[in-house]
Write a structure and sequence with these properties.
The protein is of the alpha/beta class and 391 residues long. It contains 9 helices and 22 strands. The longest helix is centred in the middle third of the chain and has 22 residues.
């Protein structure tokens, strides 16, 4: 059994609301996910931004909702962890879309956590050793304050992201959304020691939420930026703990690959080979050069278990992103094309010419996958910058 053929994202509307649709957006800096739920409703996760000079629709998630379900309520917005690469559009979309609930990392008292984080990031901004660091901290503070303002008018609607929290339970469609990391015992211990806000500033990926979406017999895992290890040591909240406590995540049908495919985020049980096709979606991260295409590095290990990998765009500046007519590439072609575009040139792949700055629309660095309730992938669509990476 093979994956369904890919269609252009322009052919997607209208959505078949019998299915669960996962949109994954990633233009090279930031990552945003949107779940169009069966029947009605949206769940939005994190955010990213596209470069659109003089145009209002810079945020892929805003465009996705506007194009594919503008009359549907946003039931939930989730910010998996307070990292600058996942913050783009969080404040703006909370104000524009007025979600019914918001969820952020925290152990039982997210509102107190927000206040502590604002203080920590404000100090970092004021003490920033360079302008970029100060700007990144300011962006996070802006998002936190937007959530604070939203929560003041909605008591009880700000939810903590920690293992054991059920964010959604929709009986009519048999859909649940559960948080499977970070573990509350670790968060509470850090909170008691006065370390929680500091860790969110200095080790934000350790606090990244892992989300499990169940649609009857279909499981989709959204891996956030959670690592397995860092500096050669296991992360206390990381994937080793998650997979020990939630081994059922191995049997997913869809996966948003953790931390842009870095080797240290790939737990062997989560990315083990399986007996049927799965939809594995991956976003790039420019400044870290992820995903890496070297032998035995992240992308290579992923392709040993699953091919193709659905990559939302090349690991390039948003201003250099290129459209790809066919969208089927190998890791070697990614290397050659990326080098050519970075140097200001073009890259010819078969009959397709890659030219920088040809992918500027918010829907260009996007994959969408539709799942039924029986564990099947029923359809796939891609934007112009999105790629299928094959062995």
């Amino acid at each position: 059994m093979a994956l369904p053929d890919v269609k252009p994202i322009e052919a997607l509307a209208p959505l078949d609301r019998r299915h669960l649709h996962l949109f994954v957006a990633g233009p090279g800096a930031g990552e945003g996910l949107a779940l169009a739920l069966p029947e009605r409703g949206w769940v939005l996760v994190d955010g990213c931004r596209c470069e659109r000079r003089g145009r209002p629709d810079r945020y892929p998630l805003e465009r996705i909702v506007a194009d594919f379900g503008p009359s549907d309520p946003v039931l939930l917005m989730i910010w998996t962890h307070p990292h600058q690469d996942h913050v783009h559009g969080v404040a703006e979309l909370i104000e524009a879309l007025r979600p019914e609930r918001v969820a952020i990392t925290g152990a039982g008292k997210p509102q107190r956590s927000i206040a502590d984080e604002v203080d920590c990031f404000d100090r970092l901004r004021r003490q920033g050793r360079d302008g970029a660091q100060a700007l990144r901290s300011a962006n996070v503070v802006t998002a936190l304050r937007a959530i604070q303002t939203w929560a003041e008018t909605r008591p009880g609607h700000l939810l903590p992201l920690c293992d054991g929290t059920r964010l959604l339970d929709l009986e009519t469609t048999r859909l649940t959304l559960d948080v499977q990391a970070p573990h509350p015992t670790v968060l509470e211990s850090w909170s008691e020691q006065g370390l929680l806000a500091r860790h969110m500033v200095e080790r934000a990926n350790w606090l990244s939420a892992v989300l499990e979406v169940r649609f009857a017999a279909t499981t989709v895992v959204l891996g956030g930026d959670l690592p397995v290890r860092e500096g050669g040591q296991d992360v206390p909240t990381g994937w080793r703990r998650v997979m020990e406590q939630h081994p059922e995540l191995t049997y997913h049908v869809g996966l948003k690959i953790p931390h842009h495919g870095s080797r240290d985020a790939l737990h062997p049980d989560l990315v083990a080979p399986f007996g049927r096709p799965r939809a594995w979606c991956l976003t790039p991260f420019n400044s870290a050069g992820l995903p890496r295409t070297d032998d035995d590095d992240g992308l290579d290990l992923l392709l040993e278990a699953e091919s193709p990998i659905m990559l939302t765009a090349l690991s390039l500046s948003r201003k250099l992103q290129a459209a790809h007519a066919e969208g089927r590439v190998t890791p070697r072609e990614i290397d050659l094309g990326t080098r050519a575009l970075r140097s200001g040139g073009t890259f010819l792949d078969g009959d397709t010419l890659w030219r920088s700055a040809t992918a500027l629309d918010p829907l260009d660095p996007v994959w969408c996958v539709a799942f039924d309730d029986a564990g099947h992938i029923v359809d796939r669509w891609r934007g112009r910058a999105a790629l299928e990476v094959h062995r």
